[in-house]
Amino acid sequence: MSFQLCSNYKPTGDQPKAIEKLTENKIRIILNLDDLKENNIDLHSFMSSSVESQDLFYNMLDKAEKEIGFKTKDYKLMIEAIAVPERKFYFNCNSFFS
After folding, report:
1. CB-CB neighbours of 2 under 10 Å
2. What is the C-alpha to C-alpha distance for residues 76 and 95, in angstroms, rounded to an integer?
3. pLDDT tens digits for range 11-49
4. Is the dihedral of CA 12, 14, 67, 21 positive or negative?
5. What is the pLDDT of residues 70-79, one digit of tens each?
6. Per residue, what are the HEC states of 21-77?
7. Cβ neighbours for 41, distance < 8 A, ≥ 6 positions apart
8. Number of neighbours of residue 16 by Cβ within 10 angstroms
């Protein structure tokens, strides 16, 4: 399963990019319900940490490494997940060298 964003995020106003580098060790990944649908994941499966949602998350991290150099190998990760009213999910990911 490969991760694809179907939303066309633009870095204007309060709508950030789909993957945004906040600091050297912190990124934000933004998904919405259309992104889940495009990847054949329903909201219940996504919220219940299904195998499909875990695969999607790992694919998002791989995409972040390729696009903006966010390293995860040999790092510990702290993930903060936030659901916002605009039917979006924000994942703030911090990496710590282990």
Report:
1. 9
2. 6
3. 333 434 589 999 999 999 999 888 888 888 888 888 888
4. positive
5. 988 889 999 9
6. EEECCEEEEEEEHHHHHHCCCCHHHHHCCCHHHHHHHHHHHHHHHHHHCCCCCCEEE
7. 50, 52, 53, 56
8. 16
